[in-house]
Design brief:
It is a single chain. It is rod-shaped, with a radius of gyration of 22 Å. Helix 1 runs antiparallel to helix 2. It has 2 helices and no strands. By secondary structure, it is mainly alpha-helical. The chain starts with a helix and ends in a 12-residue tail after the last helix. The protein has one domain.
């Protein structure tokens, strides 16, 4: 996923020196979107998913012996 984002970003970054305003705007919009996607996938999701799982399925205390 990350390699595809790097290739896509590089491809659209190559449009910037063209001098055509519409292509520059599209390239910048795509690169900003890729940065936002990378932040969500690399930073936010690894924090949100485990915390949501702990809230949904509370862990039992595994350090105590519950043999009754």
């Amino acid at each position: 996923m990350l390699s595809a984002a790097i290739i896509l970003g590089g491809t659209f970054a190559a449009l910037i020196p063209s001098g055509v305003l519409t292509l520059i705007q599209v390239a910048i919009a795509v690169m900003i979107g890729l940065v936002i996607l990378a932040v969500i996938l690399a930073v936010i999701l690894p924090i949100i998913i485990p915390s949501a799982m702990c809230l949904t399925y509370p862990l039992q205390d595994k350090f105590t012996d519950n043999a009754e």
